[in-house]
Design brief:
single chain; 381 residues; alpha/beta; Enolase-like, domain 1; TIM Barrel; 2 domains; 10-stranded mixed beta sheet; globular
Length: 381
C-alpha cells in the first residue's frame, strides 16, 4: 500500500464555555480543529489532527511511500526541511502527517493503535483540565464536578495573575476531587507568565495553603537555568516541555535538572511523544502528554512505561468526529476500533455553521502584556 494524496478539512470544538489561560480568553468557546486525511491506493485513509499549514512542502517526503515505515518517514520529513528548520507550523505539519501514518499502520494491521505500539492495558490514567481561566468560581465548580463524577482524582487549573484567587480556586477544585481520594493531585498552569523570582515567591505562598503537585510552565519554555532554580526552591514538581519542537530542545532541560515532569504537546505527534518519553525515561523522569481533541496520544501513552497521567480537557469530540473511547474511571478507556478510532463525518463537518479560531488576538495564543515583569502578586513592580 502506498500514500497517494491528502485532503484537508476544518471542523470546530464547541466547548460550551469560555476557555483560556492567563494570556487570554476566548469568550465564545468555539475553536478550530484542522483535520488531515492521508489517502492510499489501497482504499484506507489515515487521520491526523492539528494545524498542517506546510502540507504542500512536507508531503513529498511521504508521497508514494508505505505508511508502515512511519518512524523512518518521520525522519524523512525532518530531513526534507533540514535547512529551513522544523519549528512551529512546520513541526505541526510533520506531526499531523505522522499521526495519520500511525493511524494507517494500525488500520493495516486491523487493530487499535494502542495494540500496535505494544500496550497491555486500554485504560490510560488522566487528570482534569478545563482551560478554566475565563470561568467564575461557580462555573469552575460546576465544570470540575463533572470530572469528579467520572472518578478523577487529580486536576489542573489555569492561573498565575491573582495569588489569592489561585489559592481559593485550587481549594475549590481539590474539595471536589476529595470525593474520590483523600489526597487529590492539584496542579497549577501559568503558561509561561512568570519570571524566576516571581515564580518562587508565588509558589511559596500557595504551598503554605495547599499541597501543590506540580507547577506547569512557570517560565519561558527555553529557560533551563530558571526552571532548575524554581525546582530547587519549591516542593512542587516543575512540569514543562509542551511547546518544545524536537527532541534536541529538551536536552538543555535534562542537563540542567530543570524539569520534573516532562510534557509533550499532542499537536507535535506520536513519534515525537515516544522519543521524548524514551529520553525522559533515561533520566528517570515521568512523562505527561498535554491534552488535545480526541486524545490521540493516549494510544502511545498506554504503552509508555514512565507515563504519569494524560491531560483530559473535554468529554465531547469536535463536530463531525466520532471517537472510540470513553472518559470514565479517572482516565481514558480506549476502544477496539482500528487505528486511532477516529471516524470523520464529512457531511456533518461541511454542514457546520459554527466558526472559531485559536488565533483570535484576545485568546491564549497571544502572550499577555507584562508577562514575566512582576515580582509581587497583583502589582506592576
Amino acid at each position: 500500500m502506498k500514500i497517494t494524496g491528502y485532503r484537508s478539512l476544518s471542523t470546530v470544538q464547541d466547548w460550551g464555555r469560555p476557555i483560556g489561560d492567563v494570556n487570554g480568553v476566548l469568550a465564545a468557546g468555539v475553536t478550530d480543529v484542522p483535520v488531515l486525511i492521508l489517502e492510499t491506493n489501497g482504499g484506507l485513509t489515515g487521520i491526523g489532527l492539528g494545524q498542517h499549514e506546510e502540507i504542500a512542502r512536507v508531503f513529498p517526503a511521504v508521497e508514494g511511500e508505505d505508511p508502515r515505515a512511519v518512524t523512518a518517514l518521520y525522519d524523512r520529513m525532518l530531513a526534507r526541511v533540514f535547512k529551513s528548520g522544523h519549528g512551529g507550523a512546520t513541526f505541526g505539519t510533520i506531526a499531523a502527517i505522522d499521526m495519520a501514518l500511525w493511524d494507517l499502520k494500525a488500520k493495516m494491521a486491523d487493530e487499535p493503535l494502542w495494540r500496535t505500539v505494544g500496550a497491555r492495558d486500554r485504560l490510560v490514567p488522566g487528570y482534569a483540565s478545563a482551560l478554566c481561566f475565563g470561568l467564575d468560581d461557580d462555573q469552575l465548580v460546576e465544570i470540575y464536578r463533572r470530572w469528579a463524577d467520572r472518578g478523577f482524582t487529580s486536576a489542573k487549573i489555569k492561573g498565575g495573575r491573582d495569588l489569592d484567587g489561585d489559592i481559593r480556586r485550587l481549594k475549590l477544585v481539590r474539595d471536589l476531587m476529595m470525593a474520590n481520594t483523600p489526597r487529590p493531585g492539584m496542579m497549577l498552569d501559568v503558561n509561561e507568565f512568570w519570571g524566576t523570582k516571581q515564580a518562587i515567591r508565588h509558589i511559596a505562598e500557595i504551598e503554605r495553603e495547599i499541597d501543590l503537585t506540580w507547577i506547569e510552565e512557570p517560565l519561558r519554555r527555553w529557560d533551563a537555568e530558571g526552571h532548575a532554580r524554581v525546582s530547587r526552591a519549591v516542593n512542587a514538581a516543575v512540569a514543562t516541555g509542551e511547546n518544545l519542537t524536537g527532541l534536541e530542545q529538551f536536552a538543555p532541560l535534562f542537563a540542567a535538572g530543570a524539569v520534573d515532569v516532562v510534557q509533550t504537546g499532542s499537536v507535535w505527534g506520536i513519534t515525537h511523544f515516544m522519543r521524548v518519553a524514551a529520553a525522559a525515561l533515561s533520566h528517570n523522569l515521568p512523562v505527561s502528554p498535554v491534552g488535545y481533541h480526541a486524545n490521540p496520544l493516549a494510544h502511545a501513552a498506554a504503552a509508555t512505561p514512565n507515563m504519569l497521567s494524560v491531560e483530559v480537557q473535554s468529554f465531547e469530540p469536535p463536530v463531525g468526529l466520532r471517537v472510540d473511547q470513553e472518559i470514565v474511571d479517572g482516565g481514558i478507556v480506549l476502544g477496539d476500533a482500528p487505528g486511532l478510532g477516529i471516524e470523520v463525518d464529512e457531511p456533518a463537518i461541511l454542514a457546520n455553521r459554527l466558526k472559531g479560531s485559536w488565533s483570535n488576538p484576545e485568546g491564549p495564543h497571544v502572550r499577555a502584556s507584562r508577562a514575566g515583569l512582576r515580582l509581587a502578586p497583583d502589582s506592576t513592580v
